[in-house]
Amino acid sequence: MITVFGSINMDLIATTARLPKPGETVAGNGFATAAGGKGANQALAARRAGRYVHMAGGVGKDGFAADALALLDDAGTDLSLVKHVDGPTGTALILVGGDGENMIAVVPGANGLVTAADAETAVGRMNEGDILMLQLEVPVDAVEHALSAARAKGITSILNLAPLIPDAPRLGRLADIVIANETEFERLAGQDGMDAEAREAALHRLHQETGQTLIVTLGGDGVIAIRDGVVSRAQGLKIEPVDTVGAGDTFCGYFAASLDDGLDFPTALRRAAVAGSLACLKSGAQPSIPSSKDVADRI
Predict the structure, then answer these.
(1) Is 249 a catalytic residue?
(2) Residue 247 annotated as binding?
(3) Residue 109 counted as an annotated binding residue
(4) Residue 126 marked as a ligand binder
(5) How does DSSP classify residue 235?
(6) 10 marked ligand binding residue
(7) Is 159 labeled as ligand-binding?
(8) Class of 2-7+37-89+108-297 per CATH?
(9) Beta-carbon contacts of residue 138 (< 8 Å; ≥ 6 apart)
(10) Distance (Å, rounded) from C-alpha 140 to C-alpha 291?
(11) According to the model, what pLDDT value does residue 129 have?
(12) Per-residue pLDDT for 283 more than 90?
């Protein structure tokens, strides 16, 4: 079983011909809303990948709450660990440029009221061998408590180091598996401006220090990882991206689901990379997450 402990948002998405520069206003050419939040996105990806998933987090008592949970509910995700609190549901304000790149501002709302007690409740319902997936859009003390409680129970923890907050390097040391993009990995390693050779050297160094499985996503260049002293690489698909906003979360959810399904590590990386590529072909974080059949067909 997979439990995802993290954020639940509504995404407000505007599309433009190009992203604005600081202080600049540009004309938009489209607007949409979509359920999001890194936690909810990853939970839905793991569920669409075919695994049983609990979502743990919080939503507000407002008009966005039901819509934020709708796709998770429709997919059969267990929502019994989602609390409803006074105030707004978390929101993400997203600008998507014509080349598919994006800019995002996140307002925590109910996500900011997720607590260490919520983490204790979520982990308390898990068993040894289960998978706990976390991100950094809920308070640091809640994430830290969840990671510590998971380790004490023999639960495999996966931490996605996003968004990149000051506590990310410290929290990264507490997880069994860390997933980071290039920038996040540089912060974890304490080394800026890495080329491919320096990145692989840093992977080996950190792995020797911690014994952790470390995964670095590289956008169109695929993924590089180290586990049990062995470096693995995987490629996604050659695509023309429409919207990259859901790619990283789709990768994370599919990777967790693949491990939970008993796939070997290189196969799990490849499946997750292909799923992440497919998520770039549609707009919105959750609507873009592919089904397991779509991923299998493309592999």
Answers:
(1) yes
(2) no
(3) no
(4) no
(5) -
(6) yes
(7) no
(8) alpha beta
(9) 5, 6, 7, 39, 57, 108, 111, 112, 114
(10) 32
(11) 93
(12) no
What is the 3 state secondary structure string of 246-289?
Answer: CHHHHHHHHHHHHHHCCCCHHHHHHHHHHHHHHHHHCCCCCCCC
Q: What is the DSSP letter of 21?
A: P
Burial 134-153 (b: 16+ CB within 10 A, else e): bbbbbbeebbbbbbebbbee
The residue annotated as part of the active site, out of 67, 249, 294, 297, is: 249
Phi-psi region of 278 (alpha: psi -120 to 50; beta: other; left: phi over 0): alpha
CB neighbour class for 280 (10 Å; exposed up to 12, middle 13-18, buried from 19): buried
Q: For 123-154, what is each residue's pLDDT tens digit?
A: 999 999 999 999 999 999 999 999 999 999 99
CA distance 245 to 101: 8
Q: What is the mean pLDDT of residues 102-116?
A: 92
- pLDDT at position 223: 97
Domain ranges of the chain: 2-7+37-89+108-297
Q: Are 104 and 9 in contact (CB under 8 A)?
A: no
